[in-house]
Known about the structure:
The protein has 3 helices and 2 strands. By secondary structure, the protein is mainly alpha-helical.
Amino acid sequence: MTKEISQELATILLDYSQETRQGVEKIAQEVAQKGARTLQQTSPRVKGIYASGWTMQKQGDSFVIANITSPFLTHLLEKGHTTRNGKSRTKAKPHIGKVEAEVNKEFEEKVRRELGK
């Protein structure tokens, strides 16, 4: 009888962990897509390509927001950089950090709600 109970309990826990994993993955995908859309709307317009290049990509078990058209510009625009002649710096245009903080906070809140069910 105890063997049957332990097998039933193991099945219940496995089902719960799979449901939880699927729920968290769905939340991660939704939040990442929202973050990519927000960056498309709020990013600086550099030759019309940079802002439209934000997308969400799945890498393994994670969802990553990346700029596929101009990945080399993200840090330069976010932090500023030295000009070509080396005599001055460009003004930083922070746009990624704010969205990152919002996405992380939203993800955490939604996962807490999901686990609290």
